[in-house]
Amino acid sequence: MSIEIKLPDGTVKKYTEPVSGYEIASDIGSNLARDAVCVEVNKEIFDTSYLISQSSDIRILTKKDISSLKILRHSSAHLLAQAVLNLYPGTMYGVGPDIEDGFYYDFLFEKTISEDDLIEIEKEMHKLSKENQPFVKSYMSKKDASKLFQDQKFKKELIEAADSNEGVQGENVSVYSNNSFIDLCRGPHVPHTGFIKYFKLTRLGGAYWRGDESNPQLQRIYGTSWYSDKDLQQYLERRIEAEKRDHRKLGKELELFTTADELGPGQFLWKPNGALLRNIIENYSKSAHLNNGYKFVNTPHIGRSVLWETSGHLEHYEEGMYPPLNSKDNDDKYYLKPMNCPFHILIYKSDLRSYRELPLRLFELGSVYRFEKSGVLHGLLRARGFTQDDAHIFCTFDQINKEVNNLLRFSIALLNSFGFTQIEADLSTKPSKAIGESKDWEIATSSLENALEEQGIDFITAEGEGAFYGPKIDLHVKDAIGRRWQLSTIQIDFAQPTNFDLEYVSTENTKDKPVMIHRALLGSIERFTGILIEHYEGNFPYWLAPIQLKILTIGSVDEYVQKIASKLTNIRIEIDDRNIRLGEKIHDANKMRIPQVLIIGEKDLANNTGSLNRVDSDDINDDDIDSLISIIKESSKEPKFSF
Predict the structure, then answer these.
(1) Which is nearest to 142 in space by CA: 101, 170, 105?
(2) What's the domain count of the chain?
């Protein structure tokens, strides 16, 4: 037997028998072996103990790799569950995934715990960490797993559930053990608990089992985990800063949006300032699309069940859809749309298409509705009704690479315009439940990967995280305090053109099938607005601020102020002519994060002057009013879009 192991630098190591990732790392160097977290084998991630039995391309992942943080955090969730069961025997434990910047685990305690109890749980986790317990993966039958977890009803349910992915694949179940603790899990994990040193349990919350309100309510313990104390402390400082920036708090203070019990959870009412902010964002996006080859369309909010059956949504996404609407029309079922794509497909299909029309780029600011579980709703960041800057591109097979490259450049330029300059990507590959031919998935995934490399964008591969109809690129931005937000999505789809029998007339006058690319660049306008609020802490750049200028009056200057306002017709202005002290007016303007304040008093009337206060510059006092107007106009211009 000859096993050739190719390393990222092109080096090939040969072995005569199956070899583990740890052994390969040891052959390369002792430091690498010490720091090895997992091994990537042919772009799939495994434990360092995984035995490689055939020639493969591999990469040893260390603490420096982005992917390693996800693995650390999921391992930390296991350590949390182990600590809880040590301290509270008889506790039922549910699931514990990694999440953005951390992890959580859901528990049903015999007696409800409090925030104060997290201190003792954290101490127990530190004790277990120091024991360097190895994470060991093994497999068993569903029958044996049910017997093993006979006292854990949530685990038994996962074992028996056909749609579970918690280590359950067909009739086999994978589990991880460290000492006496054992859990259902696909993995991978860090080699041993000693890797989990720098962590903090952050809060206690509630969640329904499997997100279903008819199921028991569990207590959810949240935590964060890092590879260094420096990173942990920086994160904890960011949390304090994030609380000040919470868009829900600022949205109320700045009178942007509100909600009401009568609406139900996950829906929002936009006040004038918020609606104005949305309009600015949407109009900028519209202008960028119009000037770059997109055609606008508009589609309904509901569609017949046959549409969602053809698209595959009812088979693969029904849990995320609202229940069917009542119909008096021959018992037809209608659904609120969770996606815009089937409607754009119908627009494409409404005419005979020629290769000369391709690529055809259809764009819509389309509202969609998804029945998100109440436990995952989070203000504008996770809502049930939202609007997407959605487009679908229909192109030939030969146009894929050019279109994806074009999309990446377009996406980056748009995000840059809103102040996001640090951009990373995830490349999500074929999930276990998928439609379409394997060869098409391989071609699509390769096209996305090549585009990322050509554009020089750092990315990680998220194995099995693609949508059911195609692989995708997710662009992530870092905000002002270093948090990572997923925004733009670009997804190749070979399946839907087949599902809907889409065609175009080729250069040879034959009928060929187009390729479809799904993309949303800002994503949900609601979510994007929430991220902007937190990124800028409500202090929007001049061009984005709902009110760009506030004019504060002192004395009787109405006619002069109106003359000034007439010269600022394209500037969003408010005039505060209340008969109160100037200090109070300035305080109120600052409270509402108004970026520019123009102060006009009676002496300015005679001298044709004014005083301008701006958030990012020194005050300008008693200056010529026309000069101040020029400054206001120049600073309020929106950025030019180009890529």
Answers:
(1) 170
(2) 4
Among candidate residues 62, 86, 101, the one where a domain is terminated: 62
Regarding whether 12 and 155 lie in a shared domain, the answer is: no
Helix 272-290 / helix 400-417 crossing angle, nearest 10 deg = 140
- Structural domain of 591: 549-635
Q: What is the CATH number of the domain that holds 40?
A: 3.10.20.30
CATH code, domain with 231? 3.30.980.10
Q: Which of 182, 188, 185, 206 is nearest to 95 (CA)?
A: 185
pLDDT at residue 100 above 90? no
The SS3 assignment for 316 reads helix
Whether pLDDT at 330 is above 70: no
How many whole angstroms separate alpha carbon 551 and alpha carbon 600? 7
What are the structure tokens assigned to 37, written together?
């977290």
Token look-up 């402390």 returns 233
Query: 273 in a domain, yes or no?
Result: no
Could you tell me the pLDDT band of residue 551, with boundaries at 50, 70 and 90?
very high
Distance from the first to the final alpha carbon of the chain: 52
Is the Cβ–Cβ distance between 363 and 330 less than 8 Å?
Answer: no
CATH of the domain at 314: 3.30.930.10
CB 153 within 8 A of CB 121: no
Q: Same domain for 488 and 509?
A: yes
| Radius of gyration (C-alpha) of the chain in whole angstroms | 28
Name the residues annotated as catalytic: 341, 370, 388, 390, 392, 472, 518
Q: Measure the CA dihedral 95/97/99/102, to 10°.
A: 100
CB 219 within 8 A of CB 108: yes
Question: Burial letters for 312-323: b for 16+ Cβ neighbours within 10 Å, e otherwise?
Answer: bbbebbeeebee
Residue 35 structure tokens: 């720091």
User: Is the confidence at residue 435, as pLDDT, over 80?
Assistant: no
Q: Return mean pLDDT, the chain.
A: 92
126 and 55 in one domain? Answer: no
Whether the predicted pLDDT of 167 surpasses 60 = no
Question: DSSP assignment, residue 17?
Answer: S
Largest CA-CA distance found in the chain, in angstroms, rounded: 96
Asked whether 542 and 616 are in contact (CB, 8 A), the reply is: no
Provide the pLDDT for residue 541: 96
Residues 227-286 pLDDT 10s:
999 999 999 999 999 999 999 999 999 999 999 989 888 999 999 999 999 999 999 999
Instruction: Compute the distance between CA of residue 203 and CA of residue 593 in angstroms, rounded to an integer.
Output: 31
Torsion sign, CA atoms 626, 630, 635, 638: positive
pLDDT tens digits, 297-328: 999 999 999 999 999 888 878 888 999 987 66
Q: Are 377 and 517 in a shared domain? A: yes
In a domain, 167, yes or no: yes
Residue 468 pLDDT greater than 80, yes or no = no
Dist. CA 389–CA 112, nearest whole Å: 44
